[in-house]
Amino acid sequence: MMSQFKVTCSRLPDTYFTKFSGIEETRTVTTYSDGYSQVKQRRVGASELSNITLSKPFDVDTDATLLRLLQGYCEGGDGATFDITVTPVRICNNVERKGNLVFTALGCRPVRYKLLEVDADSTEGISMLEMELTVSSVRF
């Protein structure tokens, strides 16, 4: 039995991603002297979410909707955001949800995509589609 994650996009309900970079949040830290002590103090400030990257094997027959979504953003389309959901699953004979947590990256927008990278010498023969997204907030 192997634990994995199901990664989906709210605007592409039938598209599943096989690679996900993970969610990373960092906070700024300011060092200051309070004037009373010889020890500098630290104040934790605002947080910043790093961009996330999603990848999947590219399939010219089934990825037309995904390509239209990416093309729309590149051409200044509707600009509507979407959510990325990461659900822990257990894969036995079928896919079963594992636990009660679901991780959601909210307010995502594409900022970069890459597709049709071809390596004729590769024995795998798989071309990956990769997209990088900004994230407004995370909920779990």
Q: What can be said about this structure in brief?
A:
This protein is mainly beta.
Your description of this structure?
With 140 residues, this protein is mainly beta. Strand 1 and strand 2 form a beta hairpin. It is elongated and about 70 Å long. The mean pLDDT is 80.
Quickly list its features.
140 residues, single chain, nine-stranded antiparallel sheet, mainly beta, elongated, two-stranded antiparallel ribbon
Overall 3D geometry? Answer: elongated
**SSE pattern, N- to C-terminal:** EEEEEEHEEEEE
CATH superfamily: Hcp1-like
Total beta-strand segments: 11
List the helices and strands and how they pair.
Elements: E1 2-9, E2 12-17, E3 19-20, E4 25-32, E5 41-49, E6 52-57, H1 64-74, E7 82-91, E8 95-97, E9 103-114, E10 128-134, E11 137-139
